[in-house]
């Protein structure tokens, strides 16, 4: 029904005005460098930690965008490789989608899309990871009069199969199926916006058997996990207050392919005070639930207790480096044995933007686990993030940063290495993104 409405509205729109076609093509070059050091154990015959962790990475994107009334087609081809890497580095399709829009606000979008919702805590491209995240989806929705309503559908396979669905565990995204509903409302003439989100994801558990793909005989099956919650943004002049709350339920797939139940949640609050457009300060608190931990001490290490219910919250497909420190020791690098102790993140930081070209920010994070960990203190460590950026021209920008992580004995014991004690990370990104041409006819 929605596609019929879109088609009829689009055809009518083309007959009552002159056809206007617009094509633009551009390039995006990124050179990214990192130096990581500190704390890593040194063994005989190896280099110092700092020498082990230096590299340059290049990313090239070619993007094309075609638009006419009621239709937009967008494609981005990407190549990413470490400087000096051997072998051919294949191109891949980063984005590739078509979007049909109607005058009444309805739209339908199909293809590979970089999704971003609200503050990107649950769904975001995580562009700081250089390669970024995209999803193969069908997205239907309505936008107009302060309302935005989206429905996102996905079904993933490793290959085409006319007989049955393929067992799916190593794809571009971890889910086999995904259904998401998102609604956002901006209050008229009042600086308040609010969103509701619901996600249902099907994940593959058990083992693959190409002769008989049946959970009754070999345990292979699809189990489902849900995420639901809300995000609020109140932004009067000089002040921004953000809050979110999400719950997780259903089942999660473990590394041993079992599927225990989930009962997890998270909450966050952030306040930004900006007396002028040039400077301000942000303070906030994140709480992400964790598993109860019952240790079995042996040789200074922790053992694991199998949990019937998983209480460790997962941010799923969010831009984690925006929230839990740029180094993100907690959700992009796992704890020993896959244990998730949860996280408490208290942060504060000023920022300064003297003009439209230069900006800098400093943020302090106090990190602690959300659950009790034997006789250890809950404090994981202290992290300082420094960032700066300069826009030379509209298509040339440089950003750089430095992070110092001062981990505690709790962090060392939970990760079972000392890489977080006095860990250091410096990075820079030079982005050159010229628009090659734009034409209309």
Task: Explain how this protein is built.
- There is one protein chain.
- By secondary structure, the chain is mainly beta.
- Among the domains are: 23-40 and 48-102; 263-441, Beta Barrel (Porin), CATH 2.40.160.
- 7% of the residues lie in helices and 50% in strands.
- It has four helices and 21 strands.
- The strands form two sheets. It has an 18-stranded antiparallel beta barrel. A two-stranded parallel ribbon has the order 12-15.
- Strand 8 (177-186) and strand 9 form a beta hairpin.
- The longest helix is centred in the N-terminal third of the chain and has 14 residues, at 2-15.
Topology, please?
Layout: H1 2-15, E1 21-37, H2 49-52, E2 54-68, E3 71-82, E4 92-101, E5 106-113, E6 135-144, E7 147-155, E8 177-186, E9 192-205, H3 215-218, E10 221-234, E11 239-250, E12 261-262, E13 264-273, E14 279-288, E15 309-310, E16 343-352, E17 358-368, E18 379-393, E19 396-407, H4 409-415, E20 423-432, E21 435-440
Parallel strand pairs: 12-15
Antiparallel strand pairs: 1-2, 1-20, 1-21, 2-3, 3-4, 4-5, 5-6, 6-7, 7-8, 8-9, 9-10, 10-11, 11-13, 13-14, 14-16, 16-17, 17-18, 18-19, 19-20
What labels describe this entry?
441 residues; mainly beta; Porin; 18-stranded antiparallel beta barrel; two-stranded parallel sheet; 7% helix; 50% strand
């Amino acid at each position: 029904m929605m596609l019929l409405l879109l088609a009829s509205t689009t055809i009518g729109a083309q007959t009552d005005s002159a056809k206007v076609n617009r094509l633009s093509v551009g390039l995006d070059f990124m050179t990214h460098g990192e130096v990581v050091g500190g704390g890593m154990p040194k063994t005989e015959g190896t280099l110092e930690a700092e020498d082990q962790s230096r590299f340059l990475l290049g990313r090239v994107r070619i993007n094309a965008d075609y638009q006419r009334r009621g239709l937009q087609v967008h494609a981005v081809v990407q190549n990413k490789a470490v400087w000096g890497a051997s072998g051919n580095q294949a191109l891949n399709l980063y984005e590739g989608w078509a979007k049909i829009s109607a005058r009444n606000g309805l739209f339908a979008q199909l293809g590979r899309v970089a999704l971003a919702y609200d503050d990107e805590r649950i769904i975001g491209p995580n562009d700081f990871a250089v390669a970024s995240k995209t999803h193969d989806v069908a997205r239907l929705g309505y936008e107009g009069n302060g309302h935005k309503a989206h429905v996102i559908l996905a079904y993933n396979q490793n290959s085409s199969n006319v007989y049955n669905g393929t067992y799916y565990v190593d794809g571009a995204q971890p889910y086999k199926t995904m259904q998401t509903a998102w609604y956002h409302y901006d209050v008229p003439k009042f600086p308040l916006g609010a969103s509701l989100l619901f996600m249902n994801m099907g994940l593959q558990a058990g083992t693959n058997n190409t002769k008989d793909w049946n959970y009754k005989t070999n345990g292979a099956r699809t189990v489902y996990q849900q995420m639901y919650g809300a995000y609020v943004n109140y932004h009067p002049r000089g002040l921004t207050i953000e809050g979110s709350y999400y719950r997780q339920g259903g089942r999660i797939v473990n590394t041993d392919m079992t599927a225990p139940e989930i009962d997890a949640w998270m909450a966050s609050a952030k306040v930004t005070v900006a007396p002028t457009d040039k400077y301000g300060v942000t303070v906030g608190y994140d709480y992400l639930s964790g598993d109860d931990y019952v240790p079995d001490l042996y040789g200074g290490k922790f053992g694991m207790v199998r949990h019937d219910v998983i209480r460790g919250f997962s941010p799923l497909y969010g831009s984690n480096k925006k929230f839990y420190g740029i180094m993100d020791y907690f959700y992009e690098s796992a704890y020993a044995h896959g244990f998730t102790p949860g996280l408490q993140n208290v942060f504060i930081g000023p920022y300064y933007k003297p003009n439209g070209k230069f900006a800098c920010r400093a943020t302090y994070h106090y990190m602690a686990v959300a659950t009790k960990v034997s006789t250890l203190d809950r404090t994981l460590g202290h992290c300082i993030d420094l960032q700066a950026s300069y826009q030379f021209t509209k298509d040339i920008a440089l950003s750089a940063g430095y992070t110092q992580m001062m981990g505690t004995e709790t962090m060392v014991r939970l990760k079972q290495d000392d890489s977080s004690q006095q860990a250091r990370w410096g990075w820079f990104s030079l982005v050159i993104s010229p628009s090659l041409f734009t034409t209309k006819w």
